[in-house]
Amino acid sequence: MQQWKILIIDDEDLLIKSMRLSLNYKGFDTLGARDGIKGLELADSFHPDIILLDIMMPGIDGWEILKRLKGSSGTSRIPVVIFTAREYSNGTALAREKGAVDMITKPVDPRLLASTLLKILEQNNRMEG
Amino acid sequence: MQDDIAKLQAFADNVPEGILIIDGSENILVFNKQALKLLGTSVEEILLQTSIETTLGYELSQAIRDAEVRKQSHIEIFKSGRCLHCGINRTSGLLDQGKQTIVSISDVFSLKRLEEVKKEFISAILHKIRSPLATLQTSLSVLHEYQSQTMTDEAREVLEMGRHEIDRLNHLLNSLRDLFIIETGLEQDDIKYEHFTAGNAIEAALKKLLLLHKDIITRVKIEGALSTPVFADFQRFCRVLELLIDNALVFSKDIVSTSIFLIDDLCTIKIKDFGIGIAEDTIPMLFTKYFREDNQVNRTVQGNGLGLFISRAWMESMSGSISIESVQNQGTTVILTVPSGSISSHE
């Protein structure tokens, strides 16, 4: 079975740790970045299959990171899922409008997160052919 | 009479708005410090007034003269560089004789700023609570998923208590967020209409409830056309379904039937449980904030009494409706209607 690589960009260190633990148990290969700069570096070097991206972070916020990811040839094709504690009335539409594939509001049940990510990855895999 | 004026003065001194009470001969009987500050006037000026126009200006004086008994009127005026909102009430029962006019004065900018501060404050609090909660939830779920088999019974019980309380806290947080939006009158500002199907919305609601009700797949039966179109705010509609299906699952141990119909451009969803039912005279009160019926389930299940209040506000904000039919000891049906968004009704 293919081992998918997930990059988590979030300024909450403990959340990264717990999510990595949870997703690693599900068989994913994960890495975490606590800020946007580190996140952009890892997106280039780690070549993740999907990125989980927080929005409200000090320094460069998630929307700006998304813009840079989509603007760079090396990372533009990586699907990004917005992972935020802030409630948007129409999160998925907003995320898609900005270039991400979906939005998940924190907190989310880890099983639900893993199944959502798998669905997106498989869909993306089919589209990429 | 002097005693009554003193009592009114004491009342005016204890409210945050500017207050003026004026008698039928246009004498200012009562005024507080805030009124002086907002109107840019002084005690001396008021005591020496020759006419209210001198102190209050033409517009406000005219509005006071035009005020009718038992009818509230409002006026916005510019005075001393401020935009002031003045509420005017003419009454005849305040003092022994004659008619009096009560004017309450607020600074419009301060009110709007206060609203903004309140919004930012609540939004920050919700955000700050959600982040550590997400960490806690993920951590405990990892323990549950991968370590619970090797735990002692006591440790597993403690873990389950923790997970249950986190779910409750999440539920409460969502209700507080909804309540905040409703109470601040923002439900129309924040609405995002879109076309979707009833099936999509029910599926999204069931997914969320899977965390609280592990047996949801076997207990919730869906009938009717899942493809029935809906034109509403998706998240808001899902939230109503989530609250109502959760209620139905809590108040019965049996199957919950969810049926979908399209009647006259309206998507109608009926959520029916076969539980303890609701007393007829209690039904109208169920939509009141914090109301919880005194029954055997409510005595054992913790709740915040906000679900139906929020559901009604959300449905009405989307030009929909909610109603309840119930027979005690037989069950309850909640009926939702929402525009289907067909071309004839929306274009």
How would you describe this protein?
The complex is a heterodimer of chains A (129) and B (347). Chain A is α/β, with parallel strands linked by helices and 129 residues long. Chain A has a single domain, classed as Rossmann fold, CATH 3.40.50. Chain A has a 5-stranded parallel β-sheet, sandwiched between helices. In chain A, strand 3, helix 3 and strand 4 form a beta-alpha-beta unit. The model of chain A has no long low-confidence stretch (mean pLDDT 89). Chain B folds into 3 domains: 108 residues, Beta-Lactamase (2-Layer Sandwich); 72 residues; 154 residues, Histidine kinase-like ATPase, C-terminal domain (Heat Shock Protein 90, 2-Layer Sandwich), CATH 3.30.565.10. In chain B, 47% of the residues lie in helices and 24% in strands. In chain B, strands 2-1-5-4-3 form a 5-stranded antiparallel β-sheet. Chain B has a 5-stranded mixed β-sheet with strand order 7-9-10-12-11. In chain B, strand 11 and strand 12 form a beta hairpin. Chain B is elongated and about 85 Å long. The interface between A and B is medium-sized, with 23 and 31 residues.
Biggest interface pair, counts: A-B, 23 and 31 residues
As for the number of domains of chain A, it is 1
Number of helices of chain A: 5
Question: What is the level-2 CATH architecture name of the largest domain in chain B?
Answer: 2-Layer Sandwich
Straight-line N-to-C gap of chain A = 17 Å
Question: What is the spatial order of strands in the main beta sheet of chain B?
Answer: 2-1-5-4-3
Strand fraction of chain B equals: 15-25%
| Top-tier CATH class of the largest domain in chain B | Alpha Beta
Instruction: Specify the number of helices of chain B.
Output: 13
For this structure, the CATH topology of chain A is: Rossmann fold
- N- to C-terminal separation of chain B? 63 Å
CATH topology of the largest domain in chain B: Heat Shock Protein 90
- How much helical structure, as a percent, in the residues of chain B? 40-55%
What does the largest sheet of chain A look like? Answer: 5 strands, parallel
How are helices and strands ordered from N to C of chain B? Answer: HEEHHHHEEEHHEHHEEHEEHHEEH
- For the record, what is the CATH homologous superfamily label of chain A? Response regulator
Cα-atom radius of gyration of chain B: 28 Å
Overall form of chain A: globular
Q: Please give the radius of gyration of chain A in angstroms.
A: 13 Å
